[in-house]
Amino acid sequence: MDLVSIRKSYRRYARHYDVIFGRVFAQGRRLALDTLAPTAGKRVLEVGVGTGISLPHYCPDSEVVGIDVSREMLQVAHRRLGDGCCPAVTGLVEMNAEQLGFADESFDAVVAMYVASVVPNPDRLFAEMWRVCRPGGQILVVNHFASQQWLLRSMERSLRPLSRAVGFRTDMELDHFVAVSGRQPVAIEPASLFGYWKQIQFTKSI
Q1: Structural element, H or E, at residue 47
Q2: H and E: helices and strands count for the chain
Q3: What is the pLDDT averaged over residues 118-122?
Q4: With bands split at pLDDT 50, 70 and 90, how would you rate the model's confidence at 57?
Q5: What angle do CA 63, 183, 64 make, to 5 degrees?
Q6: CA–CA separation, 93 vs 101, rounded Å?
Q7: Which residues are paired to 187 by β-bridges?
Q8: Contact 140, 116 (CB under 8 A)
Q9: From CA 2, how far away is CA 98, in angstroms rounded?
Q10: Which of 67, 103, 159, 164 is the most buried (most CB within 10 A)?
C-alpha cells in the first residue's frame, strides 16, 4: 500500500462510496459513536473521515474535526456539511493520517473507522492517534482483521496481491496490529455480524 494507490482507489470510490459501503459499515459506525458517547463538550478527531457519512451522528455539543487523504472523498463530505445536518463539525482537512498536523494532546477522543488496513504503515497511524489524544482520552479503531475461519482466511490471503487495486489490505492480523500499537487495549469487541469487523478501544494513560 502507498499513498498514490490509496488516493487513486478512493478517487474511484468517492461518488459511490456511501451506496456501496454505507450500510455494510453502519453497525461499526454506530458502535464507535455509542462507545464515544457522551461526546458533549469533547473535541473529537475522526481519522479517515471519507465522505463524512458518520458526521451527522455526533452530539451537536461536541467539536469534531475530520481528516482524510482523499480530496475527492472530502469534497463529498463538504457537500454533506452544506446540508446543515452536521452541527458538531468544525473542520475538514486533507491530511496524511501518518503525519497529523495537530499539536500533542489536542483531542479528547480519536477514532479511525475502516482506516487501519488502508494506510501504508498502521504503526505510524496509531502512534499519531496516540500523540494527539489527551491523557485519559479514548482511542477507537474499527477495522476488518483476518478471519480465524480457515476458508475465509485462505481467501483473504489469496486476495492480497489485489490490495493496491482495491485500496486496502485484505488480511491484516488483529494480533499484529495490537503488537505494533505498543499499547494494551481496554476492550476488543465485534463491530459487525459474526465479528468480521472488530472495534479495539484504548484509553490513554494519565
Answers
A1: strand 43-47
A2: 8, 7
A3: 89
A4: very high
A5: 10
A6: 10
A7: 201
A8: no
A9: 12
A10: 67
CA angle 38, 42, 48 (to 5 degrees): 95
What's the rounded Cα separation, in Å, for the pair 201 and 33?
12
pLDDT at position 150 is 46
Contact in structure between 5 and 167 (CB atoms under 8 Å): yes
Predicted TM-score of the model (pTM): 0.87
**159 three-class SS:** coil
In whole angstroms, give the CA distance from residue 97 to residue 112.
10
**Alpha carbons 59 and 86: distance in angstroms, whole number:** 9
What tens digit of pLDDT does each residue of 122-156 get? 999 999 999 999 999 999 999 988 655 545 545 55
Residues with Cβ within 8 Å of 151's Cβ and at least 6 positions away in sequence, in order, are none
Q: Which grid coordinates are listed for 1? A: 500500500
CB distance 135 to 18 below 8 Å: no
The 10 Å Cβ neighbour count of residue 42 is 21
Query: What φ, ψ does residue 188 adopt, rounded to 5°?
Result: -130, 125
Could you give the domains of the chain?
A: 3-203 (3.40.50.150)
